[in-house]
């Protein structure tokens, strides 16, 4: 898809179709040319209205806000993609910041265009829609800098493509997407960018590192585990070292504490944290962010068999903390415990883990929102503020010492499953906190993306399946702190 900007008045641009956003439900905007027809059709700005003779598509937009622009453009693309047209034109709809409006524009298009139809025999023809012409004529009397618009479109495309990259990983089936496949993908990614390097560690390395919590989860899988370390180094002297740790459960059956069938379904998406971390590194390289950015991915399956780790086992983690296993389905925190310990050896300035960690997060926050947990109030608030500009939803979940008591163990240093089912996302976060050293307590944040990582119905510009949760949120955050913006 090519998006071209011109300062020609929209009526002078030749195109196969025109898209008009409808903000005013009374249909009074100057761009609306078919008021009578729209009134006759009783179109009040809900969804889209396609007038084939006039070759115009009207798209409802709730308000001129960045996320509404994304949704409207995704809806426009979906309404036009199957038509026999090769382009459409549209005026620019700017809300406040010009660059951000164009970022949102491109994100809407590229997120809306995502599809995963690899396993459909009856694949839809590739869309002939390949070009969009944006007119900035409306702003010609202001100091409109076309470079801002073009830069916005470029950033938006990178953001969306990074999220789509993660979606492809998450949507892939567990038969194909094994830890070895994740390692292979990380190596291919690293070979595509000059600033990236990748190290892949196998089970022997994990043994040598005493990563026994990680290894325990892997024990009855027929696929060996992989610890994947991707590094992006900018050309300039890096301002900070930021490490993302991703939960990469290529399948979570629950292990011996087996999940009921209904809950097991969609657990190919338990690798969403790792996929997001990998996609963030890709995005960071394309945006040429001035940070050294690492992704540490803990890739394994959680399966069931004669060699499975068991409730009652006690594991000695890499950090030396002993863990009583009370539920083998609380496996993500075991993998993360060892990966977070490994990550701290690399002396990060900021350490963020991403994980589909708890069903409780979904129960508590709904399917649309991720949880932010950690010890540094300012960091959490700042992250929430910047990350939400991406259109993703975040809520801060607070730690407290009463909940911390629930993961005490009688026979080991900590239990992997709380004694109460209430506050499950927070007790999971508190479990991770046990593996964060004193000097990193304020540098660490845990993102529980269990709710929005995988959708069973479409919403906004997200379609069925993986949403790429965490990717754009973290890239927006990184982008903002690049500028030192508060
Ligand atoms: N991968 C799941 C969490 C999950 C559930 C993610 C639903 C996305 C959708 C995780 O490993 C898990 O099973 N957690 C348990 C923890 C419990 C046993 C303490 C849970 O949330 O039930
Ligand atoms: Zn689990
Ligand atoms: Zn899991």
TrEMBL record:
Cofactor binding note from Swiss-Prot or TrEMBL: Binds 2 manganese ions per subunit.
InterPro entries according to UniProt: Leucine_aapep/pepB, Macro_dom-like, Peptidase_M17_C, Peptidase_M17_leu_NH2_pept, Peptidase_M17_N
Ligand binding (Mn(2+) 1): 252, 329, 331
Family: Belongs to the peptidase M17 family.
Major location category of this protein: cytoplasm
Keyword field: Aminopeptidase, Cytoplasm, Hydrolase, Manganese, Metal-binding, Protease
The name this protein goes by in its record: Probable cytosol aminopeptidase
Subcellular locations according to the entry: Cytoplasm
Reactions the enzyme catalyzes: Release of an N-terminal amino acid, Xaa-|-Yaa-, in which Xaa is preferably Leu, but may be other amino acids including Pro although not Arg or Lys, and Yaa may be Pro. Amino acid amides and methyl esters are also readily hydrolyzed, but rates on arylamides are exceedingly low; Release of an N-terminal amino acid, preferentially leucine, but not glutamic or aspartic acids
Pfam families: Peptidase_M17 (PF00883), Peptidase_M17_N (PF02789)
Residues at the active site: 259, 333
Gene3D superfamilies associated with the record: Leucine Aminopeptidase, subunit E, domain 1, Zn peptidases
Entry GO CC: cytoplasm
Keyword DNA-binding on entry: no
E.C. number(s) listed in UniProt: 3.4.11.1, 3.4.11.10
Domain Cytosol aminopeptidase: 327-334
GO molecular function: manganese ion binding; metalloaminopeptidase activity
Record flagged with keyword Metal-binding: yes
Known role: Presumably involved in the processing and regular turnover of intracellular proteins. Catalyzes the removal of unsubstituted N-terminal amino acids from various peptides.
Cofactor needs: Mn(2+)
Top-level lineage group: Bacteria
């Amino acid at each position: 898809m090519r998006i071209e900007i011109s300062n020609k008045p929209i009526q002078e641009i030749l195109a196969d179709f025109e898209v008009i956003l409808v903000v005013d439900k009374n249909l009074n905007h100057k761009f609306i040319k078919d008021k009578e027809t729209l009134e006759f059709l009783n179109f009040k700005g809900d969804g889209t209205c396609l007038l084939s003779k006039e070759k115009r598509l009207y798209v409802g937009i709730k308000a001129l806000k960045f996320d509404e622009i994304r949704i409207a453009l995704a809806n426009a693309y979906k309404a036009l993609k199957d038509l026999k047209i090769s382009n459409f034109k549209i005026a620019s709809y700017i809300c406040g910041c010009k660059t951000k409006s164009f970022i949102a524009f491109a994100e809407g298009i590229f997120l809306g265009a995502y599809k995963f139809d690899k396993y459909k025999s009856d694949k839809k023809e590739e869309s002939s829609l390949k070009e969009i012409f944006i007119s900035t004529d409306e702003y010609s009397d202001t100091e409109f800098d076309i470079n801002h618009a073009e830069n916005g479109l470029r950033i938006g495309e990178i953001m969306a493509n990074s999220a789509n990259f993660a979606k492809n990983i998450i949507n892939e089936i567990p038969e194909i997407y094994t830890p070895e496949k994740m390692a292979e993908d990380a190596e291919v990614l690293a070979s595509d960018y000059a600033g990236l390097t990748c190290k892949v560690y196998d089970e022997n390395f994990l043994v040598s590192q005493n990563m026994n919590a990680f290894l325990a989860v892997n024990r009855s899988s027929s696929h060996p585990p992989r610890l994947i370390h991707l590094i992006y180094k900018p050309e300039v002297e890096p301002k900070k070292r930021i490490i993302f740790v991703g939960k990469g459960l290529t399948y979570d059956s629950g292990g011996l504490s087996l999940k009921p069938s209904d809950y097991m379904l969609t657990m190919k998406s338990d690798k969403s944290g790792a996929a997001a971390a990998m996609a963030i590194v890709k995005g960071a390289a394309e945006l040429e962010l001035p940070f050294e950015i690492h992704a540490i991915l803990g890739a394994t399956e959680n399966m069931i068999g004669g060699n499975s780790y068991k409730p009652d086992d006690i594991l000695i983690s890499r950090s030396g903390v002993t863990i009583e296993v009370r539920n083998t389905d609380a496996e993500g925190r075991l993998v993360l415990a060892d990966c977070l310990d490994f990550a701290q050896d690399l002396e990060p300035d900021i350490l963020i883990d991403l994980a589909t960690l708890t069903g409780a997060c979904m129960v508590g926050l709904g399917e649309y929102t991720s949880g932010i947990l950690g010890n540094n109030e300012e960091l959490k608030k700042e992250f929430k503020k910047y990350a939400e500009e991406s259109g993703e939803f975040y809520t801060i979940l607070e730690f407290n010492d009463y909940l911390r008591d629930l993961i005490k163990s009688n026979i080991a240093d900590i239990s992997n499953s709380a004694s109460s089912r209430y506050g499950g996302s927070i007790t999971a976060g508190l479990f991770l906190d046990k593996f964060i050293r004193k000097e990193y307590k304020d540098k660490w944040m845990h993102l529980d993306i269990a709710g929005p990582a995988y959708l069973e119905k479409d919403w906004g510009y997200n379609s069925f399946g993986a949403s790429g949760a965490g990717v754009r949120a973290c890239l927006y955050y990184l982008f903002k702190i690049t500028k030192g913006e508060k």
